[in-house]
Amino acid sequence: MAKQVVTTNNAPGAVGPYSQGIIANGFVYTAGQGPLIPGTKDIAEGGIQGQTRQVFENLKGILEAAGSSLDNVVKVNVYLQDMNDFAAMNEVYASYFTDASALPARTTIQAARLPMDIAVEIEAIATVD
User: The pTM is what?
Assistant: First the structure.
């Protein structure tokens, strides 16, 4: 099985020994994305909704660099610092996945603590065109 590393400046660089994304067997697997603004170490403002929007922009950057898009996402894992943020996160999430007939499978959990005390981290698996 050949695998290809995905790298882009349209998402934060890896802060450890991992890749932003990996393409294998017709799928792209993204690393968990937090709300960091690419090219900085700044966390997006705007509470959980602002952070969720930035996370999706970061995911879009990786997926597009892999030749994919949010339309091709088949699975999403969402990690929330506080499950009380679920409704606000979900409102932003729904604005990125608008085709009700093709919504990705999803798992959402509350994590005891996320890196840099961010409020949300999301990873995705998508098909590659």
Answer: 0.96
